[in-house]
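Sat 14:20. Reprocessing the chain from the morning session after the first attempt stalled halfway. Input below, unchanged.
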Amino acid sequence: MRRARQGKIVLMFADASHFVMGGDYLGYIYGFARRLVRTFSGRKRYNVLGALDYVSKKITTVTNTAYITATEVCQLLEKIAKEYVGKAIFIVLDNARYQKCDVVRNLASELNIQLLFIPPYSPNLNLIERVWKFVKSGLRSQYYNLFDEFQEKIDSIVESTHTTNSNAINRLIGRGVQLFDELEPVSDNSFSSRKSAA
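Finished this time. Tokens:
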């Protein structure tokens, strides 16, 4: 992170988010009278595979309405390589099979991109997770009648992370990640820890 802030490397955090129209973007109305509230029809899904530039907060994306596979990860790597030509690129990502497979690793090696895989069950180490939460919060305030409108809203929020929403994203990302030091077992499957930022 320090090297990225100094301009010596490009540090990115990559992951996919799956936005479901008709899923969890509902509001609540409390009152004494019973009211009918419109909701979304169907359960169409918009997949966004993104890579967050740690310094600029710009997100490079590959999107579809089917599935995220190794093919989309390779497309993302190629986009990143073209965007940051001649720079040392490091991408932090989780251990999803489609991201850790040989096809992806080989392409990353060809493009001179270093892939850094975080430990399992460590979403706190992947800063783009905070951005996906921000995007989802921006969707909940509106009813979408058309799937195209739903997609456009997601795209507009994602594209604004380094422009109109840069202040909000900077507050979310900060200069470190949440680490858990000195883990002590409490039982067979739980631990207590002292939280720290690094």
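The radius of gyration is 19 Å.
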